[in-house]
Amino acid sequence: xxxxxxxxxxxxxxxxxxxxxxxxxxxxxxxxxxxxxxxxxxxxxxxxxxxxxxxxxxxxxxxxxxxxxxxxxxxxxxxxxxxxxxxxxxxxxxxxxxxxxxxxxxxxxxxxxxxxxxxxxxxxxxxxxxxxxxxxxxxxxxxxxxxxxxxxxxxxxxxxxxxxxxxxxxxxxxxxxxxxxxxxxxxxxxxxxxxxxxxxxxxxxxxxxxxxxxxxxxxxxxxxxxxxxxxxxxxxxxxxxxxxxxxxxxxxxxxxxxxxxxxxxxxxxxxxxxxxxxxxxxxxxxxxxxxxxxxxxxxxxxxxxxxxxxxxxxxxxxxxxxxxxxxxxxxxxxxxxxxxxxxxxxxxxxxxxxxxxxxxxxxxxxxxxxxxxxxxxxxxxxxxxxxxxxxxxxxxxxxxxxxxxxxxxxxxxxxxxxxxxxxxxx
Length: 426
Known about the structure:
The structure is a single chain. With 426 residues, the protein is α/β, with parallel strands linked by helices. Helix content is 38%, strand content 18%. The chain has two domains: 3-295, UDP-N-acetylmuramoyl-L-alanine:D-glutamate ligase (3-Layer(aba) Sandwich), CATH 3.40.1190.10; 302-421, Mur ligase, C-terminal domain (Protein-Tyrosine Phosphatase, Chain A, Alpha-Beta Complex), CATH 3.90.190. The chain contains 17 helices and 17 strands. The strands form three sheets. An eight-stranded mixed beta sheet has the order 4-3-2-5-1-6-7-8, sandwiched between helices. It has a six-stranded mixed beta sheet with strand order 12-13-17-14-15-16, with helices on both faces. Helix 3 packs across helix 5 (99-116) and helix 4 crosses helix 11.
């Protein structure tokens, strides 16, 4: 098999959530455990950090990996979904998994795949853990896919765990209330392990407290231990207990919502230090300043052009869109152009209710099977009196927006990871 034949086999043989939705989700860890046993349980051969949450887990994972990388550690990073290439999911010190390694791996477990019929995600988790093991990493930073309790990544016994925040997303799988979603995220907790709640939410705090008590985990729910302020030169100072701790940091992640993840990131690093990892302050500063450079993170308030200003952002649920629009409102521009598309399992109406009436809209869809059909999006948008046109793909929409925008306008592309992934110039 060539690499592309291998990927075709995985895509066609295995159900993939990004393509088929809920039916790809396996409500237990049996297949993951079986695959890992076949490989000699590689997940038991490296240290790890496990991250769950509704929004912010991806940027947190990349940031923690960047800090550890700056400190000289060999760091594995597993995240999903990918934007441009499958190999983005599995990295060591920012370098994507070797295509030539993937083919023999799949051939080695092909018989097992055809025997137990795992999901695409279950196979990629096993692949990541094996890759990290054979490459003798120092530590892996692992982001959950969906939820936590039944997520395929949830076989780890991490050095420390992080739960970023809780919002209503993937409610068809995780439950329709914040309590139910928090319960699923809390499912990553293990006995005698420390878990940090990076964003204190009073209405679900009890869920984490009860679950930690049940499993015998140590729990840290952050409130105001860390404060972040922007100084006159546009950089950031971070305070702990009213004392300046880090100063003049210029984050290369430009999304304002990233700031909400900083406390959880720093608390993870402090917990690692308490366990003897010895992460230096200069590594924290340089790691936070160079997340994009070190890990090649994309799609977080990413600037694609300046005249007109073009911003691409993967925000796709109500909390994420609210934060994104808040930052957009602070920018200086003449007219706003929004390119928007989403997937079928989102509450589209509640998102459309948030979008500003005075923008020009370019509705579109991704090429994936879960994309909301452009005709359905048009029908929903009619109720909101938007000025809109529709396009079959994001690049057509972007070309039209650029042709109608002046040099001082803003073009925002958002609504779905899969819309952002299909931008040619990303």
